[in-house]
Design a protein that fits this description.
Blueprint lengths: L19 H7 L1 H22 L9 H12 L3 H14 L2 H14 L2 H4 L11 H37 L4 E6 L2 E7 H20 L4 E2 L9 H6 L5 H10 L4 E2 L10 H29 L24 H24 L3
Parallel strand pairs: 3-4
Antiparallel strand pairs: 1-2
């Protein structure tokens, strides 16, 4: 939008500076571009690996197609969105965008039949989402590891600072601040190990997942092995036994782990602002900030409170996707 304040989501306004790295991945621009790259790379893959079955392609044509692929920009997105207004189909709009470009060049137009060859939309989408989630997960993991590393430093630094523990909200036995923080770092370490083992999956087997169109076109090719090789180029593994859609179990598993990390982080946030309330910690006053509109002496633990709310919202969305995506 022309002005940030016209956006609906605070992620596109108030919190924009905090998510700029993942915004580039998960924006609509990022999704459309990834679909576009998959379509182009599939065509090149077929022609380069099996020129005797598909139209032979020379180096000059390859360079021309790669230049077109690598020049994708905001204008490309606008053109694809314009096509989508007619097709009412997002993946088909990408295909038509490529076809329109190829039709302007006699040398490229003879490859039109290989655009989206043998595929269904879910082949493009499942691989595109796997790529986006893989890239986003890498950034997420780096941030979680950084958070845990900072907590470990503080745990070690404060290991001998005494703290009166509470159970059921009542004064209990003594502990230390460092030990209490170590509880959180240990929990997060377990979840980091689990989420690091997640394998992104995609299907590339056409309508209903049986490789029909591909096998009918060229029966001499082992399409299961070939599509596996293609998907592997994106550092994604093949789910070769599916229906028309990839069942998304791996995404649900990933979101369940993220939900547990969210809950650990909510627990940490609540403990920290309780420590502040009990004057175990003291918030630093930023002279440029206002803690209260009517009580200027107040400094509120707003970062921990905001974190708690955002983690809760994330959990609600995760729960929806976990239950929705795994049911076809």
């Amino acid at each position: 939008m022309k002005f940030d304040h016209n956006n609906i989501s605070p992620l596109d306004n108030r919190y924009l500076s905090k998510i700029s790295d993942i915004r580039n991945i998960f924006s609509e621009h990022g999704l459309i571009k990834t679909r576009f790259i998959i379509e182009i790379n599939w065509l090149l893959f077929l022609c380069e690996k099996y020129p005797r079955y598909f139209t032979k392609i020379n180096s000059a044509t390859i360079k021309k197609i790669i230049k077109f692929r690598d020049s994708f920009n905001d204008q490309s997105v606008l053109e694809i969105k314009k096509i989508e207004k007619t097709t009412n189909h997002d993946v088909k709009a990408v295909e038509y965008y490529i076809r329109n470009f190829f039709n302007k060049d006699k040398g490229l137009s003879k490859y039109n039949h290989l655009i989206h060859f043998g595929l269904t939309s879910e082949d493009i989408n499942s691989l595109a989402y796997a790529i986006l989630l893989k890239d986003g997960l890498k950034i997420y993991l780096n941030n979680i590891k950084l958070l845990n590393a900072n907590l470990k430093k503080l745990s070690k630094k404060w290991i001998n600072i005494p703290l009166l523990s509470r159970t059921h909200g009542q004064a209990a036995s003594p502990s230390t601040i460092g030990k209490e923080l170590k509880v959180f770092t240990t929990r997060i370490d377990r979840e980091i190990k689990k989420i690091s083992d997640i394998t992104p999956l995609a299907k590339f087997s056409g309508a209903v997942g049986n490789y029909h169109a591909l096998d009918l076109a060229v029966s001499n090719i082992d399409w299961i092995k070939l599509t596996k090789r293609f998907i592997k180029n994106f550092n994604v593994e093949q789910n070769r036994i599916t229906t028309q859609i990839e069942p998304h179990d791996w995404i649900a598993e990933m979101l369940q782990i993220i939900t547990r990390i969210n809950n650990i982080s909510i627990d940490l946030s609540q403990d920290l602002w309780i420590y502040i309330s009990n004057e175990i910690f003291k918030l630093k006053l930023n002279t440029n900030e206002i803690g209260s509109s009517t009580m200027p002496h107040k400094v509120n633990p707003i970062d921990f409170e905001n974190a708690e709310g955002n983690f809760g919202l994330s959990n609600a969305l995760n729960d929806f996707f976990i239950n929705k995506l795994t049911k076809s």
